Amino acid sequence: MHTAIIVEDMLDALELLKSDIETRYPEIKVTGTARSVVEAAKLLRKKEPDILFLDIMLGDGTSFDLLEIFPNLKSKIVFITASDEFAIRAFKFAAIDYVLKPYSDEALGKAITRAKEQIGPNEERLAILKDTLSAPERKPDKISLHTLDKIIIVNLDDIVRCESDSNNTIFYLKDKRKIFVTKTLKYFSDMLKRYEFLRIHQSHLVNLQYISAFIKTDGGYLMLKNGENVPVSVRKKTEIMEILDRMHR
Question: What is the CATH number of domain 2-134?
């Protein structure tokens, strides 16, 4: 039997989640609910649950305020967030699991399964999530990369390029490290395109600040500042030339 506490400021959403958990997951006992940071803090001072369901925005603050009160919390956290493009991108940058409201039975089930199996996010990943949520239009400083056996945090400006490897992605960093990540190139292209990363080829995503030159011969390719050459697809050539022209004005 696992214990759970739900922290959600919308009463209807709280009651629905509580009912769904009690009905579909009899192995989980909801021992308390709260609608604010203050209420949740009172509950957590009495006893930590195995799983903590946390809405991001609460009436008297945010769930980050709660986590700052309890920095050594051992509970597995399931974040719940509204279907907001900025929030989703923030969770992806931090490589932290989340459930979108309104959630499906399948999404809730997967989140609960992961919560039972995994250790909660560390302080640095929570900081990435908090910073990216608090300033959605600003370029994030860091990104969390999910490899086969761990999560590695890197500076966004240290990523030279990304290369597709089937349904995975290889990150090439400024310090010559390669990181094999279990997500598709499209996943990262969609995340990074607003931060001066350009998909120049079906298999390649490049950080524009590392481009040295565009060579038009041999089918067209980019010379990078680290000495690598990366092919450019035919349909991207015009866009590349326009971008480089703007960068050098």
Answer: 3.40.50.2300
